[in-house]
Amino acid sequence: MAVLRNKALFFTTSPRSPQKMIPEIRLLHEKFEGKEWNSFTQEAFIDELARSSFFEGNGSPSDKAFSARDRINRAPKALGFVDLHPSVTLTEAGKALVFGKRPQEVFLRQLLKFQLPSPYHVENNDISGTFCVRPYLEIFRLIRVLEYLTFDEIKIFALQLTDYHNFDTIKSKILAFRKEKEQYRGKYKKLVDEIWTSTVKELYSETIASGKTKTRETTDDSLKKFISTKKSNMRDYTDACFRYIRYTGLISISHKNRSISIFPDKIKEVDFILANVDRDPVYTTDLKQYKRYLFAQDRPVLYTDDKNNIIDILMKIGPFTKRELSEMELEKLKDLRDDIVQKHKEAVIHEQVVEIKSYALYSEIIDTFNEIISDEYYDAPLMFEYNTWRAMTMLDGGNIKGNFKFDDSGQPLSTAQGNMPDIECDYAGYSMSVEVTLQSGQRQYETEGEPVARHYGQLKKRSGKDTYCLFIAPNINPAVIAHFFTLNRTNISYYGGRSKIIPLDLDLFMKLVENSYNYKTQPGSSDVRRLLDMIINKVDTSASETEWYDYIHECVSNWLVCS
Question: SS3 sequence, 89-137?
Answer without folding.
Answer: EECHHHHHHHHCCCHHHHHHHHHHHCCECECCEEECHHHCCCCEECHHH
